[in-house]
Amino acid sequence: MYRLDRRAFFDEDVLKEEMRRVFRPSWQLLGFESELPDAGDYAVRRLGDDGVIVARDEEGRISVMLNSCSHRGTQLCRATFGNSAHFRCSYHGWTYANDGRLVGVPSLRSNYPQDFRKEAYDLPRARATAYRGFIFATWNEQAPPLEEYLGDFRWYLDAMLDLTGGDWEVYGPPQRSVVKGNWKISTDNFAGDGYHMQTTHQAAFEQGIYGSSLADGTLGKGELDLMGINISTPQGHAVRAGYVVEKANPTFERDLTQAAYLGYPPEEWPRFTAAQTEEQVRFNSHCEVVHGTVFPNAAFLSVSHDRAVGRDTDPLTKYFVWRVHTPIDARHTECTYWTLVPRSMSEEWKRRSYAFQARSQSAGGILFEMDDFENFARIDAAIGGSVADDAPTDLSLGMGLGTPVPGFPGPGRAEHLTLSEHNQRGFYRRWAELMEAPRD
Ligand code: FES
Ligand code: FE
């Protein structure tokens, strides 16, 4: 039995502790370098429960600084994104350079004491670093380097990015929506919840919107199945990969190479294979869907959809969406969605990939996201009562039943069990470690 106190999903005191113990020490995904191509470009994001400005300064470096004036705390930048060399406070006019330095104070010489030093009022800056175009930041000066924080997950991120040659960019502005329910509900879903597919997304299955590639003649109608492999790292990160296998012979080793490339133009496939290492090809080759999480609150999904979310003539198209689930309070979460596309694809392909992502995995989604949000809101509606509060959340699915995957090319313990809460347990194990750690 693996159970969790339901207060973790609605108690504001738990969220306060999470901010101190889970978010503050962790590296968090804030966005992507391709969103800020030029000096002065900025985006306003949240790092834990603090508003921050993510900016490319005049030297081309990425800075992440508190979006709050050092004088009285006024919010400095109210735009979502833009380009500016400076941020000027709307209250008394203190002005900061786009790397966080205080550079202008009205009446400084005439009305401030002589020992007033501007340098003491620079905006607090988070540690920020980019890994393959992903911008992460943390307030924790003691945090390990990002690459160490990512641990074994880094191998999987590299493999997913190298699938198409490695050069990705964000397409279009990120979408944002606020949903009912605690931030961990949507995050644990992305970590590894294959269990909800047949009920929550039944309508999508009935319409053939998902898994249609399995029924596609190319791969053999009705003879194929998805085999789920779960990887959970000690840092709390998760990857769940769905492999196309023959029903009669469901082994990981069987190479059905087309599966990973379905949704990309066939003329690109040989180039994709050439760009990967042998181990990456083995990981990617018949992986049809992959999703997971980067602890604490980033999630991703790569999958193909077809014309069921587009026009009748639209071909099967892959999308690769990254999301961040930011707590607004214990019972509301802001989801931010970015569609990543290989830079080399045509504009038409990129637009379609973005549209297919937006029509399924976003606030405007006609399937999937709406199905999930409805259930997340129903959890929120039902768990706060005094009796409901006493009943724990269960996470026992597949416990002790997963089997190691012989020959699996990625690091960490990969286990095969298509329906399992293995990855969710890994996520909550890391969460509990941080929540229960003795205070300094
Ligand atoms: Fe910003 Fe006074 S609060 S200048
Ligand atoms: Fe779902």
Please tell me about this protein's structure.
The protein is of the alpha+beta class. Helices cover 27% and strands 29% of the residues. It has 15 helices and 21 strands. It has helices at residues 12-23, 108-111, 146-150, 153-162, 183-192, 197-200, 202-206, 212-215, 258-261, 269-275, 278-284, 347-360, 369-382, 386-390, 422-436, and strands at residues 3-4, 28-32, 41-47, 50-56, 62-66, 81-83, 86-88, 95-97, 102-104, 125-131, 134-138, 168-180, 224-232, 238-246, 287-294, 298-305, 317-329, 332-342, 393-394, 403-404, 414-416. The strands form 4 sheets. Strands 12-18-17-16-15-14-13-21-20 form a 9-stranded antiparallel sheet, sandwiched between helices. Strands 2-11-10-5-4-3-6 form a 7-stranded antiparallel sheet, with no helix packed on it. Strands 7-8-9 form a 3-stranded antiparallel sheet, with no helix packed on it. Helix 5 packs across helix 15 (422-436). The longest helix has 15 residues, at 422-436. The chain is globular and about 85 Å long. Mean pLDDT is 91; it is low at 214-219. Bound molecules: FE2/S2 (inorganic) cluster and fe (iii) ion. FE2/S2 (inorganic) cluster (FES) binds next to loops.
